[in-house]
Fold this sequence. Notes:
A: globular; B: four-stranded mixed sheet; two-stranded antiparallel ribbon
Amino acid sequence: MTTIRAWVSVHRGREAAGGLAAAALLAVASRTATLDSFAIELTQSIQMPLLVPLIIGCVIGIGLSSDMDPVHAARNLFLPRLLWATTLLTAGTTAAACATINSPAHLAPLTRNVLLFGALATASTVTLGGTAAWTAPLTFGLACIFLGANAYNNHHTAAWAFALTDTTTPHQWLLVTTLVAASTCLYAWRGYHGIRLATNWR
Amino acid sequence: MPKNPLLRYALRTCWGPWAAVAIAAVEVFNLLRQGQPWRGDITWALDWAGVAFILFGPVIAGVAAIDAGRLARPATSYLVDTGRSPLRPFLLPWLATVVPAACVHLGVAAAYLILGASPNAPIPWPAVGGALLTHLLGICFYAALGSAIGRLAGPVLGGAAAAVGSVAVFYLYGISSERLAPLQFGRATATLIGLHFSPTFLLLQGLTLAVAAVLLLCLPTRLSAGRRQPTRRGALALAVVIVGLTTMTQTAHVTRFAPVAVSPTVCGGTTPQVCVYPEHTRFMPAMLDDTAAITATAKTAAVADLLPRSYTERLPHAAPNTNGEGRIAIPVDAYSGDAVPRPDLTREMIFPYHCRQLYGDIPPPMSFADDLQFAVDTLSRTTTPSRSDATRLRAVLTSFRDCQLGQARP
């Protein structure tokens, strides 16, 4: 128990817990809302709960990082990091699932999006550190809305912008599962250090 | 690394200068996408350039938050809480984000101006300058917003909060089409010929962004139990920003564009004569060839007398024409190239834009659509129409000329 508490304290567990609680509240508040246009005409109306996993992904990326400088641990941290990432992904899915309470939102697309944005945020944290956990999820989320679902000369939402759709396919599951497995293993192997141009980068 | 200490600090410690690489990628992608349909139309070109703000605004806010947040941590309090102006320590990280981003944006804007300028249309420099100035103020605002959020939330939560929050701020203050939307820099997906940026809109937008950016950048904060909070004056400044933005957005009824007088002065051809707006000169060569070919087909079908002898370009939402001239509206999909596809051009040449029935609430009968499609198919063919087709074509075009839509009787 002490080890677990120490692990959560060393990492940004408190920020992650607060962020996931706020995301759960947002999921409940937005469970019936839709986004019909967003400066541009969209090819489809987007269920707002499908966008909450973007925030959850950022929170997961933050939770994986730490305020501490790299520690030369006496043991291999692959398994503990793998467990920590899995725990945050599970907690993130639970937070997103709050959107299904008394609403037409389905659990499957929410879970898919948590895995997708979680994987992207994990990759950001591994490469750039916890401060930049938002970069990949936000870039991909905005690209989905403004490029994938832009009605200017698209009649349908682009296949790669599947995060905006409320139906799932086996191909999507295969893709997100591969992404999340790869990024989680990368995190378990490399940790949260990121690429640093200076020693004071966190 | 440069020897100048300020440059070394900016490049070694701040994220801002490196974010310019991502901004450049977004800008170049936006410049090149969808076949640059805005070519020749300077107002549309600048409006298209502004669309990139939706994508790189959150990046600017995020990196500004990281840089300001790292400086605002308790460990560096001795650099920040010196009793001097709260602006002083945070100005350099803010500039480290703003200056590279502004340089990239101005560089790409120059490309827009070169490609967007038409040799036959003068550039409206006051409107162009005003629009570019508001773009720069937009960069300043996003960086100041990020700086304020980063100081209060720290570099880790602050970066994510500023990036995601700036999307929410854009949703609140950047979308309205009827009122002042301070964060609206671009959205047009159709030609803007006949419209220029409204000076009133640009002035109000620029003032709002400048005041909000200054207040956010000068936000006074203090450390309390290891957490940075706004002082009373800081809380007041935040309240002024939120109330001011909301009030301006809700009350100022101004539109982004104001109409200006334009006329299609670039003309060519004799049978028929075609005139387009100077901004669309690039469509002329193909249009002259195709209109001549379509007219030749009409002659073989003995219906050339039912087609107008001259055509002028029609702008979206134009009123019915009553002078006997034909109208050619360039379809949205054609802007990515330099020619209007033959079937689309045929449709435009015979479409009865002069008939008031097409502008009312009651649509014409379905048989009108069938007649139109038949006429387009017949005239688009390169072969001579059969006698029965020619007879029906004449009846259709006569019904179009007389505005008896859907009532063609061979």
